[in-house]
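JOB MANIFEST
job_type = single_chain_structure
chain_count = 1
residues = 211
[input]
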Amino acid sequence: SSTFYRYTLYTSKDTKLVTSDYYQMVSSDSSVSNVSASANPAVVNISNVAYTINFTTSSIGRLIGGAAAGSSTITVDFDNATIVPATIAAGNVEVNSVSCQNVTVDASGAGGIVTVTVPNGVTIGNGTSATVLFKSTLGFANADISDGTYTVQVKTSSDGINGSGNYTLTASQDLFITSVTPSPSLQNASAGYSVAFTLGSGGALYVGDTS
């Protein structure tokens, strides 16, 4: 923050408190490590894709959510194989399985960039692994592009240098469960279930086939 940190001082001779101007804390020139990503489904030219991003903070890269000076952030820079929507519902993004309160799309479209604010109550220590989940309901898509290996870059408000990792997209698709919706979603209640799924590339169903 540039408008939070101040220093207050007095001495045994000058007993009146004086306060400095605001000063700023900035990210270091360190980098996250062990960056990896996975798309689900990991298939080219498909919509409603979930993305999981993993990384490890540096030895001075601790991240804190809910800090008075402003929560830490994580910035994910996707390759052009990934199409990022113009807006993202923060609640459909998770850091270490906790829903976020604030997510910003810095650049949308192919090769988009997203900055995620660490949720309140979440602390990721120095040299600690972390996971960011972008759910399939957000509208991420895999581009109509050649199958292959692509790169994702991650930096944080503590580790200011990008760390890089890979993810793979293929031309064929496996069976994929999109969502499971119980009705009602109450414990110990009798319920119906709606299951949405996408068939694999060779999984067309005909009369008499089962699921």
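[summary]
The chain is about 0% helix and 45% strand.
Residues 31 and 161 are 5 Å apart (CA to CA).
exit_status = 0
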